[in-house]
Design goal:
The structure is a single chain. The chain is an alpha+beta fold. The chain has one domain: Up-down Bundle (Outer membrane efflux proteins (OEP)), CATH 1.20.1600.10. It is built from 10 helices and 4 strands. It has a 4-stranded antiparallel beta sheet with strand order 1-2-3-4, with no helix packed on it. α2 crosses α4. The longest helix has 67 residues. The radius of gyration is 37 Å and the shape is elongated.
């Protein structure tokens, strides 16, 4: 986009001091948006927590897979029996027992397989939650980054306005000395300068808050310099191209993965109606009595559920209800994603139109100010006309800068909402 040229101004003391300290501390390197985001990723407890939740989900998957494998246990006991037993050969009063027992599940009503698929889906959902947390963090970083940059740019603009008004004050004082201007004109300019200085103090308070947020999110010094390296594109893709990305949004993918998990949970619950079949084997290390010389045995055990007080049917109904709830959640998340993308896309288009209008207005205001200055020297307009033209020009420049930063924020939020920003889309789950 075409940018208006303006004279270089002194940066406000707090901004300049912070920038110099940052350059000295970081070897002359200011942080870009990507640098800030990378620092925030390392700093964020939310992202670290999501990483741990992924690990926990993966362990639950391993636990579910273990249900298909055999279990081996060592069993040992020592029993004392009343010596009044009639046959102490078959039932000795001291009965040591030691064996190795193994159990291999053969059929459990397909519950184990369904549980494995369920936990696998939940691992995917947790990974998508991790990516979604990164997206949300990026949005927060974008907002804070441009809050700081915009306020600092506004402070520079205000200092420039003060310098221009100071120059205007000097010119008027010179004219007052030769009787060509009134003292009231000088006082009007001085009042304007005082107003601008008060506005600087207000912005300094806002900058302090924004810088504190930056330090909290990035872990860097609050005075670290920031450098805006982002550029607005010349063209914006159509809405349909952005809406196609709804399906790959991490929040939508997570909701769908959880829907799949609830579907598998129905199979798990219904498996309670089906019989189970297990293969049991024992290797005896020490026995007493009539079976003292029997070293091993193998058992095929079939269990058929007949009645459980209606608990299995209740579990099935609960699982079906959870599945319906998950379907509603998928619908809600998709509609919210669709609405967010539509809203941001419309906002980005309006931002572009606003920038074009403000650029035109700033150019016109500049020409008007230059014209008023020439006419004032010729006595054709009053000092008030010149001040109004100068203020209009300066305010248009400030509005243009603020609108440009706002447009960048909204565009980057749109890119994040459709997972198109490289810093988000290319990262792998740890």
């Amino acid at each position: 986009m075409h940018c208006l040229r303006r004279p270089t101004a002194w940066i406000h003391s707090t901004v300049l001091a912070g920038a110099l300290l940052s350059v000295a501390a970081h070897g002359g390197q200011a942080l870009t948006l990507d640098d800030y985001y990378a620092a925030a990723l390392q700093r964020s407890e939310v992202i670290a927590t999501q990483s741990e939740l992924i690990r926990q989900a993966e362990e639950r998957y391993q636990q579910a897979s273990a249900a298909l494998r055999p279990t081996v246990d060592g069993v040992a006991s020592y029993t004392w029996i009343d010596s009044g037993a009639r046959d102490t050969t078959a039932n000795p009063t001291r009965q040591p027992h030691a064996r190795i027992a193994a159990t291999q599940p053969l059929f459990r009503g397909f519950r184990e397989l369904a549980t494995i698929r369920q936990t696998q889906a939940l691992v995917g959902a947790q990974q998508d939650d991790y990516h979604n947390a990164r997206v949300q963090l990026f949005k927060d970083v974008v907002r804070n980054f441009y809050d700081v940059v915009s306020i600092e740019r506004d402070l520079v603009n205000l200092e420039e306005q003060i310098n221009q008004n100071l120059q205007r004050e000097q010119e008027l004082q010179a004219r007052v000395r030769i009787g060509r201007s009134r003292v009231g004109e000088v006082l009007t300019v001085q009042a304007r300068i005082s107003t601008l200085r008060a506005e600087i103090e207000q912005l300094n308070a806002q900058l302090s808050v924004a810088r504190d947020v930056f330090a909290f999110q990035s872990g860097r010094l609050a005075t670290t310099a920031l450098r805006d390296a982002e550029a607005l594109p010349n063209d914006i893709d159509g809405l349909d191209r952005y809406l196609e990305r709804v399906a790959v949004r991490p929040d939508v993918k997570a909701a769908r993965a959880r829907l799949k998990a609830t579907e598998e949970n129905i199979t798990v619950a219904r498996g309670g109606h089906l019989p189970s079949l297990d293969l049991n084997a024992n290797r005896y290390l020490e026995r007493t009595g009539n079976l003292e010389n029997v070293d091993w045995d193998v058992q095929l055990a079939l269990t058929i559920p007949l009645y459980a007080g209606g608990s299995v049917n209740s579990q099935v109904r609960e699982a079906v209800s959870q599945n319906t709830q998950a379907e509603l959640e998928v619908s809600r998340v998709q509609r919210l994603a669709d609405q967010e993308i539509r809203s941001l896309h419309q906002t980005v288009l309006l931002d572009r139109k606003q920038l074009q209008a403000l650029e035109t207005a700033a150019q016109a205001a500049k020409k008007n100010y230059e014209t008023q200055q020439r006419d004032y020297k010729l006595g054709l307009v009053t000092n008030l006309d010149v001040l109004q033209a100068l203020t209009s020009y300066q305010e248009n420049l400030r509005a243009l800068d603020r609108a440009r930063y706002t447009a960048k924020v909204n565009f980057l939020r749109l890119e994040a909402a459709t997972v198109r920003y490289p810093a988000i889309a290319t990262e792998n789950v740890p």
